[in-house]
Write a sequence for this structure.
């Protein structure tokens, strides 16, 4: 019998306690580099790793658009793994998490692709708190 699936919550994110054994070979799997502290670093990392088109503008709206269109990818499931949160200022981190949440929710089951975003369990409360305050703005 296999291990239980990692928990999902209202954000649509998955939270896991242990990142060992996460690579499965059937999906596009990317671990966000650790130590990212600026918006431009974050957007450049996404642009390189996910092969966003050359017209990518390195703005938050472009990140959302890219996460909602994987037409150039052959893998059905795209898994973005965060072993830690980026060290962005809270305002940028709120915006980033909101984009991820909205992009995860955007994909329907009958779509050709599926986006999964994974965070460590120990970041759950901070993420939920940041997303609650982003919904107030």
């Amino acid at each position: 019998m296999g291990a239980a699936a990692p928990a999902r919550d209202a954000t649509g994110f998955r939270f896991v306690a242990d990142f060992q054994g996460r690579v499965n070979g059937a999906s596009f799997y990317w671990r966000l580099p650790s130590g990212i502290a600026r918006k431009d670093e974050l957007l450049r990392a996404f642009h390189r790793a996910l092969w966003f088109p050359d017209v990518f503008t390195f703005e938050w709206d472009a990140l959302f658009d890219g996460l909602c269109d994987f037409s150039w990818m052959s893998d059905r499931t795209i898994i973005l793994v965060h072993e830690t949160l980026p060290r962005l200022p809270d305002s940028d981190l709120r915006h980033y998490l909101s984009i991820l949440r909205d992009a995860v929710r955007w994909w329907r089951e009958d779509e050709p692709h599926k986006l999964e975003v994974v965070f460590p369990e120990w970041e759950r409360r901070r993420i939920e708190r940041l997303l609650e305050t982003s919904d107030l703005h």
